[in-house]
């Protein structure tokens, strides 16, 4: 992925994609002092850019560092990176990390670096293709207690659990993993929040130890606009047989139906399809 054309914004200047390399003694690499964002640009406009930028800044503060740019500077940098790379439909990846000036667990002398990379990411499959749904394996690893890890931060270190879970799921032939929280209740997939349709209502776990996704909140609003009842609550995996539909929501996943979790099958249905279409219309400004 590192050997390609294009430019990456790095601390206020553009560098060629291939030359955007950092030192092996970077604190972010050794101690995971890194936070990032995942955004999507639709038709030249980054969806909910300011919310993502605010979350990026807040993710850094939770880890104890201040990213040395204002929200406006970061928004402008994201837009300029899209423009300089000649893209309109793209994924946007800002990442901030502590540099290599000091080695050790505590490293207050390090500088905080910020880079922004963008790459082409057209529309996913059409609604019909996506309606087939994805297959999730139950993860062995759980989302940690919020006093064990900085779970409200989109912190690189937390993705170690996601990578292990997703790779294990893929080894079993599944597409992704469904993760439980530290108590054993349903939490989220490795890169998207989860929704369960029960008795015609849209239920979703309370985000007490994982990201309260921007897409999650958008989908909850869309459901309410359709007069659907939205319920945030603790959901135990024993309740899965009660769900008539299951879907995931995230910037990359958008709204993606689920056809299986572990040994439980689901049939993507009308509520999922409605929310997929409403989300597509909203991000593509047809709504
Ligand atoms: N959970 C995890 C672990 C994620 O990586 C993401 C994607 N950022 C989400 C949830 C969904 O968040 P958002 O809708 O803000 O992209």
From TrEMBL:
Its EC number is 2.6.1.42. It is an enzyme of class 2 (transferase). Keywords: Amino-acid biosynthesis, Aminotransferase, Branched-chain amino acid biosynthesis, Pyridoxal phosphate, Transferase. Its cofactor is pyridoxal 5'-phosphate. One of its GO terms (molecular function) is branched-chain-amino-acid transaminase activity. Pathway: Amino-acid biosynthesis; L-valine biosynthesis; L-valine from pyruvate: step 4/4; Amino-acid biosynthesis; L-leucine biosynthesis; L-leucine from 3-methyl-2-oxobutanoate: step 4/4; Amino-acid biosynthesis; L-isoleucine biosynthesis; L-isoleucine from 2-oxobutanoate: step 4/4. It holds the Pfam family Aminotran_4. It catalyses: L-valine + 2-oxoglutarate = 3-methyl-2-oxobutanoate + L-glutamate; L-leucine + 2-oxoglutarate = 4-methyl-2-oxopentanoate + L-glutamate; L-isoleucine + 2-oxoglutarate = (S)-3-methyl-2-oxopentanoate + L-glutamate. Belongs to the class-IV pyridoxal-phosphate-dependent aminotransferase family. Acts on leucine, isoleucine and valine. PANTHER family: AMINO-ACID AMINOTRANSFERASE, AMINODEOXYCHORISMATE LYASE. This is Branched-chain-amino-acid aminotransferase. It comes from Sediminicoccus rosea.
């Amino acid at each position: 992925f590192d050997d390609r054309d294009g430019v990456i914004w790095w601390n206020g200047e553009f560098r060629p994609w291939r030359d955007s390399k950092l030192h092996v003694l970077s604190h972010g690499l050794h101690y995971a002092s890194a936070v990032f964002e995942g955004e999507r640009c639709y038709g030249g406009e980054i969806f909910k850019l300011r919310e993502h930028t605010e979350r990026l800044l807040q993710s850094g503060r939770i880890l104890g560092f201040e990213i040395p740019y204002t929200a406006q500077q970061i928004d402008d940098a994201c837009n300029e990176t899209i423009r300089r790379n000649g893209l309109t439909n793209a994924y946007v990846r800002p990442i901030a990390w502590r540099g290599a000036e000091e080695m050790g667990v505590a490293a207050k002398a390090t500088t905080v670096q910020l880079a922004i990379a963008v790459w082409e990411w057209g529309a996913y499959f059409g609604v019909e293709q996506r309606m087939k749904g994805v297959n999730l394996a139950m993860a062995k690893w759980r989302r940690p207690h919020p006093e064990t890890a900085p779970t409200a931060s989109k912190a690189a270190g937390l993705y170690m659990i996601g990578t292990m879970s997703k790779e294990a799921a893929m080894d079993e032939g599944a597409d992704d993993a469904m993760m439980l929280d530290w108590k054993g209740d349903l939490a989220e997939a490795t890169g998207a929040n989860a929704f369960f349709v029960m008795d015609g209502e849209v239920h979703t776990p309370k985000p007490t130890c994982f990201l309260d996704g921007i897409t999650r909140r958008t989908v909850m609003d869309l459901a309410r606009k359709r007069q659907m009842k939205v319920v945030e609550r603790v959901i135990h995996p024993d309740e899965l047989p009660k769900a008539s539909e299951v879907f995931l929501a995230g910037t990359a996943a958008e709204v993606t139906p689920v056809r299986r979790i572990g040994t439980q099958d689901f049939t993507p249905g009308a509520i999922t399809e409605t929310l997929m279409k409403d989300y597509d219309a909203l991000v593509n400004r047809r709504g």
